[in-house]
Amino acid sequence: MANYAPSDLTAAQAKLFGAFANQEMRFRDPVVHKEFLRQSEIMIPGYEALRTREDRVVDTFFKNRTSRALGSGRTFNHSGVKGDSTKFTPTWLTNSDKFAISLKQGDNNVFDNSEMLASEFQNSMINMIEGMEADAESHIFSNRSTANAATAQGTFDATDDLFKITEATEGSRAVQITQTVMDTNKFSGNITLFCDSVSHDIFEKQRFQGAGNSENLAFNFNSNVKIIHSLGMDAYAANLTVPITKGFWIAVVDGTIAALPWIPKQNRMGIVVPGINAYGSIINPIDGLSYATHQYSARADETATNGYEQDVRTEWEVSVDVALDNAPIVAGTATSSLLAFGLV
Q1: Residue 300: inside a domain
Q2: Is 214 helix (H, G, I), strand (E, B) or coil?
Q3: Pairing assessment for the beta strands 225-229 and 191-195 based on DSSP bridges
Q4: Is 296's pLDDT higher than 80?
Q5: What pLDDT, in 10s, does the model give residues 215-264?
Q6: If 187 and its partner were Cys, which of 182, 200, 290, 304 is the partner (CB 3.0–4.6 Å)?
Q7: Is the pLDDT of residue 66 over 90?
Q8: Nearest to 291 by CA among 78, 124, 87
Q9: Domain count, the chain
């Protein structure tokens, strides 16, 4: 059944509250989506104002690295070449969720209209973050580096674009080797490891193998390493040309990924067009983002969907535009700052 018909006032009824009812609305914390947001603060300052409408392009630019072999002396007639810059254009994609509610559908129900509307918004908030979490994981995987300068303590598989570490001999030093590989590719600073379930549990165990244990593995972990359980990586690891079953992760240099959220100015301003539609916004408490809301109403016979003959149906849409990006690289061996690893 649908349209809240199961809770119509046809018998003595009660509402479920607390944890017993809340399990229906359970969801995973969107940790990868949140990590994109955390690292986005200084990527393109003021981009919200630059993008005045959905179809307006925002171009950004960065200076290229120019690598040259050093000379062996000084000359009176030295000459060189000029540097260059590259244009980088973020691409925004719209995520939206839609639902409807009618004016009279709560008149004969254990839940009133305000409770139904709140539940619909709760569902939308969960749907949105689940979809954007999947988008963030897909971006991490799809934009992993297709090259790697490291050759020690592992081998780079150019088919599946990952650095393979032998689990039997080097598994207890996988995080240490990851940091060395990142350094070999000239990536320094804090790194975040987006781990599948297997590697996450291995690394969590190793993190707590400190001085009081027979084998101290705490040296793998320092303040520069953050571990995130990215559940979507399980499927990506399983679908590689040679599936990785002993642990798969992607290391990312902090500050090199970003999610740029945006909603139209009409939603930010809360514009209402009388008798037609209304633009507004709502904060999603799960990720803290401001989402656009749009609604319009029309008279309708809603008896087929648990309303009444002379009723008013209101259509709602919740949406947000997000540009997922990672720092572009023109020069050097690595093609991105997202490097994949696997235990074999």
Answers
A1: no
A2: coil
A3: parallel
A4: yes
A5: 656 666 666 899 999 999 999 999 999 999 999 999 999 989 999 999 99
A6: 182
A7: no
A8: 124
A9: 1
Q: Is residue 55 domain-resident?
A: no
Q: Is residue 335 part of a domain?
A: yes
Coil, strand, or helix at residue 137?
helix
Q: What 3-state class would DSSP assign to 145?
A: coil
Q: What pLDDT shows up at residue 149?
A: 94
- pTM of the predicted model as reported, rounded to 2 decimal places: 0.85
Q: How confident is the model at residue 206 (pLDDT cuts 50, 70, 90)?
A: confident
Assess whether pLDDT exceeds 90 at residue 45.
no
Spell out the SS3 assignment of 236-286: HHHCCCCCCCCCEEEEEECCCEEEEEECCHHHHHCCEECCCEEEEEEECCC
Q: How far apart are CA 25 and CA 42, in angstroms?
A: 34
Per-residue confidence (pLDDT) for residue 246, from 0 to 100: 97
Q: Tokens at residue 142, please?
A: 């799809």
Residue 289 DSSP code = P
Q: Which amino acid is at 288?
A: G
In a domain, residue 47? The reply is no
Report helix, strand or coil for 78.
Answer: coil
- Detail the DSSP E strand segments found in the chain: 60-63, 85-88, 93-102, 155-157, 162-165, 191-195, 225-229, 248-253, 257-262, 272-273, 277-283, 290-300, 311-326, 338-343
